[in-house]
Specification:
Length: 853
């Protein structure tokens, strides 16, 4: 019994020992584990400490993103009135690098917001900028080689979009995580989602959902359906794969992506089954006419675009848009007080104008332009497809041309084209606003308008169409485009036939300096020079030092059409910021440039320029039109400015090299004007120009412009009396001082002398006009001048003082007694020639001495 007891004790002792040894090993294991954990915790603490030190020293205060600097970099929107004339429509955006139109979250459909969250970041509404589960999953996938999974949240993607920081480095990822956590402390989820949806790239140069909605659906984003929202947000994952406008393949990919997004929305409870089914079944219409199901449908009426012309410009901007940018930029320079920068190390200067243009492209302005889309389209089509582009200069460069069209009553520039043929660059050379010579097109506004206005001339005046002076090295000046000179002629003829001599005489009578002041102060010209003001050739004939622009010429002529009221031309009405606050307004500036009667009289004459004068190439039926041609020396520039009761257009044609134009071309400016204006007026009512009060009719002499006398009816050419409509306040009151009654020998066609038979003499009126005669130049009325008829024009030739038919008195012949024969003349004694003025002598030096006896 005792032995058994000892055995049990030994067994129990052994078991106890084994138990103690197990406990010791467990303690040692846990001790090791504890040590490892402690080391890990300490290591982690150290790492966190180092990490926080790095963040505090390297990141905090250095890498945070101020989103306010980014949401202002949005596209500027250009608006114009729609076809109804009341509703403003956006027709283009301007952007430097990114085409973006900012929209508030309230204008972004809830479906689009939900679709974005469902496909891009389903835990967006619960995380604090970083989805740790997604981040760990992405890291694990990368480390194990099982694939690459995106772990970026919407917040992180937003930061990458606005900073462009997209390097694949640990430092970049840490910085991004820090930025995301910091961003969510400063901005709400709604603000972050708004910024994200306004910055994502969606293909076709579209940044943000608003420009993309307009590109793909011709809609504002607020009007998109759920199906369209899913199609749109699906593009951002890979635009080259999901852009539905690129190809059939990408459109099919977009459809698959759309269904994936709708499925995610259904699975996450954002839509129900019925909503999913309806959206999946909807046939989405894209802007190119195709649907997401691959069918093609015709564009709806509000989506139709004008038929493309034969030649299509490749530039983004029209010439009109280019000019709007320049005009608004000039206004911004003045408003903001912008100045040129100092030259950089290379001597380059960034001008104030360049700064303003840059601001336009990135400030999200809304610019309300005054363009008429229909008229602009007509002008562009004519100029892009004109046969005139086939003409080239000596260097092979094509002919150029430009047109500006203004509304007579408002002064608004409604259309502008600055080149011939296709436009290939934005903000390139614009011939419509570059000064060129206008030639005789200046005459109505630099000569006749101011002279009629102040009474220097009247509509009844006579002007001497004869060279004004004899210039050394040039000769008689000026010359007319046609050969010869009329002499004393009417204002109507002088302007209708564009007589240079008359224009210079009127300009010099009014005063070249006064003409310059009138053009600058009354008609808004900005390119004339002081040298112009001192030259009657410049001011009278349009051979300006620098030239004029089609824009300023159209505005000046529009004053004639608009009863004498000049309105400063403008391309834009108002500029607003992205919030709709007015930044600048371009108010109408108008004043009286000439009396209403002056405008009326000029319109009346300029109508005849087109129907029977130098402007017949511009004529078309069905509309009352008026205008004036212009040609410069050697046919280097051609001009035409004309108007209807509705619009005024100025057209220039010429070569950049200033080479001579082909005479076989005719007046290309008149031809282009006709093509544009005829189409513009096709559907407009034909109406006459306005009449006015203050007019009166006077009976005047054509050769003096003064009230007619009895002498004016007895002119050798017939009566010179006519009735003319003139302004009552400048109507002539004096009587004709040109016609002088004289005795005239009808046989000798000379002022009668004492030797002229009475039956050959009658009383007529001749021109007592003291014209300075140059060389052998004779005007058409030369032979009717008193100084020519009485010989005083040629004082060195005494025989011109005597009637060529009757140079001395006729001696009566005494009858011979027939019974008394005459003594025959000795044959060897020749008779002396008769130098008298026998009636049948036939003129000076006549007689019959040579006849046989």
């Amino acid at each position: 019994m005792k032995e058994h007891s000892n055995d049990r004790d030994k067994a129990e002792q052994s078991a106890h020992q084994r138990k103690n040894r197990g406990k010791g090993r467990a303690k040692r294991v846990w001790g090791v584990i504890g040590t490892i954990v402690l080391v890990g915790v300490l290591t982690m603490a150290i790492f966190v400490g180092i990490f926080m030190t790095y963040i505090n020293k390297s990141l905090k205060g250095h890498v945070e993103v101020d989103m306010s600097e980014y949401d202002r970099k949005v596209s500027t929107e250009l608006y114009r009135l729609g076809t109804d004339g009341e509703t403003w429509e956006m027709y283009q955006t301007l952007f430097s690098d990114e085409n973006r139109i900012w929209v508030d979250i309230g204008d972004i459909p809830k479906y689009l917001q939900e679709a974005t969250i469902a496909i891009e970041d389903k835990r967006f509404e619960t995380h604090h900028g970083v989805d740790w589960r997604g981040t760990l999953r992405a890291i694990t996938s990368t480390l194990t080689g099982s694939g690459t999974q995106g772990g970026s949240t919407i917040t992180q993607q937003l930061l990458k979009n606005v900073t462009g920081d997209n390097q694949v480095t640990v430092k970049r990822k840490i910085t991004e995580i820090y930025r995301a956590l910091a961003l969510e402390k400063d901005y709400s989820k709604s603000q972050i989602l708004e910024m994200y949806l306004n910055t994502i790239y969606l293909g076709e140069q579209c940044y943000g959902v608003q420009t993309a909605a307009r590109m793909y659906f011709h809609k504002d984003v607020k009007d998109l359906t759920l199906a369209e929202c899913a199609c749109l947000i699906g593009i951002t994952n890979n635009p080259s794969m999901y852009d539905p406008l690129l190809s059939d393949w990408t459109r099919e990919n977009n459809r698959e992506r759309q269904l994936t997004i709708l499925g995610e929305m259904l699975g996450q409870g954002k839509i129900d089954q019925a909503t999913y089914d309806a959206a999946a079944a909807e046939e989405v219409q894209f802007s190119d006419g195709y649907t997401n199901l691959g069918n093609f449908t015709e564009p709806t009426e509000d989506q139709e675009t004008p038929e493309k012309p034969t030649v299509q410009s490749t530039a983004n901007n029209s010439y009109y848009t280019d000019q709007v940018i320049s005009d608004v930029a000039a206004a911004l320079v003045e408003k903001l007080g912008l100045e040129d920068d100092a030259p950089d190390e290379n001597g380059n200067v960034r001008t104030a104008q360049e700064k303003a243009v840059s601001k336009i492209y990135s400030s999200g302005y809304k610019i309300y332009t005054l363009q008429d889309s229909k008229l602009q389209s007509i002008a562009e089509s004519v100029f892009e497809n004109s046969d005139l582009v086939e003409y080239t200069d000596d260097y092979g460069k094509p002919l150029q041309a430009a047109i500006t069209l203004v509304d007579n009553s408002t002064g608004n520039v409604v259309a502008m084209v600055g080149g011939l043929g296709a436009k290939t660059v934005d903000r390139g050379w614009n011939w419509a606003t570059e000064p060129r010579q206008c030639g005789s097109a200046t005459k109505p506004i630099s000569d006749y308008a101011p002279a009629l206005d102040d009474g220097t001339i009247t509509a009844a005046s006579a002007i001497d169409d004869y060279p004004v002076r004899d210039l050394d090295g040039y000769g008689a000046w000026p010359k007319n485009s046609h050969s010869g000179f009329y002499g004393l002629t009417t204002v109507w003829t002088a302007l209708v036939e564009s007589l240079n001599t008359c224009a210079v005489r009127v300009n010099e009578s009014y005063g070249s300096a006064a003409s310059y002041n009138y053009m600058v102060e009354k008609l808004g010209f900005t390119t004339l020079t002081q040298r112009d003001s001192q030259q009657s050739g410049n001011m009278g004939l349009g051979g300006y030092d620098v030239g004029v622009t089609t824009e300023e010429m159209a505005a000046a002529y529009a004053a004639i059409a608009n009863d004498g009221v000049y309105t400063k031309p403008r391309t834009w009405l108002r500029v607003e910021d992205s919030e709709g606050n007015v930044v600048m307004e371009n108010e109408t500036s108008a004043h009286s440039a000439m009396k209403e009667t002056t405008a009326y009289l000029l319109r009346d004459i300029l109508e005849s320029v087109i129907t029977s004068g130098t402007g017949t190439e511009a004529y078309f039926s069905g509309m009352t039109i008026a205008g004036k041609t212009g040609t410069t020396d050697d046919n280097r520039d051609r001009y035409f400015v004309g108007f209807s009761p509705y619009y005024c257009a100025a057209v220039w044609t010429g070569y950049e090299s200033n080479d001579e134009l082909s005479y076989g071309m005719g007046n290309g400016s008149a031809q282009l004007w006709k093509q544009v204006m005829r189409e513009i007026h096709a559907d407009l009512e034909d109406k006459a120009f306005d009449s006015c009060t203050g007019l009166t009719q006077v009976t005047v002499c054509s050769d003096s412009g003064l009230l007619a006398t009895d002498a004016c009816t007895k002119d050798l050419r017939g009566s010179r009396v006519r009735t003319v409509t003139v302004a009552a306040d400048t109507a002539p009151t004096a009587t004709c001082n040109v016609h002088k009654l004289v005795d005239y020998c009808t046989e000798g066609k000379h002022i009668a002398t004492q030797y002229c038979p009475k039956d050959k003499v009658k009383q007529v009126a001749v021109l007592d006009w003291n014209r300075a005669l140059f060389n052998d130049i004779k005007a058409r009325d030369h032979e009717y001048l008193l100084k020519v008829l009485d010989g005083s024009a040629t004082p060195n030739d005494p025989k011109d003082d005597i009637c060529p038919a009757h140079q001395k008195a006729i001696t009566p012949v005494t009858p011979t007694d027939p019974t008394t024969p005459t003594t025959p003349t000795e044959p060897t004694d020749p008779t002396t020639p008769d130098t008298g003025g026998a009636e049948d002598s036939g003129g000076v030096g006549g007689g019959s001495w040579w006849k046989r006896p």
